[in-house]
Write a structure and sequence with these properties.
- The protein has about 350 residues and is α/β, with parallel strands linked by helices.
- It folds into two domains: about 60 residues, SH3 type barrels, CATH 2.30.30; about 250 residues, Glycerol-3-phosphate (1)-acyltransferase (3-Layer(aba) Sandwich), CATH 3.40.1130.
- Helix content is about 35%, strand content about 25%.
- The protein is built from eleven helices and 15 strands.
- The strands form three sheets. Strands 6, 7, 8, 9, 10, 12, 13 and 14 form an eight-stranded mixed sheet that branches. The chain has a five-stranded antiparallel sheet with strand order 4-3-2-1-5. A two-stranded parallel sheet has the order 11-15.
- Helix 2 packs across helix 6 and helix 2 crosses helix 9.
- It is globular.
- About 5% of the residues have low confidence.
Amino acid sequence: MNKKKQLVILKEDLPEYNLKTGTMGLVDSLKDDYVDVLFFEILNIKTKKVKETKCSNLDKNKLIKIENFYTTNRLKSKNIWVKIGLCLYFPIGALLAINRLILGGLILGLIQIIKPLQFNNTFVSVLCYLGGFVPIIKNKEEFEKSDAKVIVSNHVSLLDHTAFQSFNKACSLSTRMLAQNLLYKIFFSMLGGELVQLDEKQTIPELKNRLGDLLEDAPYKKILIFPEGTVHNGKFLHFFHSFAFTLSDSVLPVTLKIRSLFPICYYPFGKDQILNLLWTIFLPVNFYHCTLLPTAHREPDETPQEFAYRVQQLIASDLNIIGTNVTNKQKSLYTKDREFYRDFINLDE
């Protein structure tokens, strides 16, 4: 078997090679200042069709290791005082988490009995504050000013929907995949607000007509979509899929950040979702900083995917992070197998 390769991600565009930020590549090592890189783009997972681009003598400072992109560290700081503070807080946080779980169970039972409380945004807003989820909204007037019917946002936690409940006018789009997720089955009825269930058998035109009818009946509402299709730790953006941008010629971009008293990573790579949730309710309070950007309109000659890329870069710029070309499917492949690239690339050549 060939020597294990180092999986890297491009930190900036390389127009001379027609490569975008976030393109994955392989190097033998990063010991030298200039390295040869084999970049690859998976065009079709089922047929294993891949586009390869070889770059010679590339500055290694333009690359980041995949391990730095998908960090597994829970704490963002190695400061000893942060660790001591967490240890001292632990008994309080554990008691708080237990009480919130008990309260959540009682509320879940109440929701099953009193159906009008399900997907009720006002009720969800109250629950958010009780659970320690505090939305801080900046430029909230953009929601009323915008003619866009679709909200697109970066995705930093499975409870990001809670940040939008204070608007009382945002509907979340749910897919079958989310419905199969244990956390969504248990908690979405409490923390999801109003829900629009997506039928995967529906075509884009059919879904557009369905959403159009929904918004016509309630013209003050908007559809919330996370175009990354997966969560990240807040340092980077995944590839924005074009689906949300086919529904309308204008979107309302929103940026999300989560802050707490302790500098933790809410969703480090590879950690169990239930453990991530327990950390969230263990903390005394979670501030969801939500910033509404000006409405983005599609240019006449722009494709939906080009529009998606432009909006991704707008959001990345506001967050001062890197918007990448790494897709949620690539994340899934890497999660299952750290050397997944061997299934797509012949390294014997």
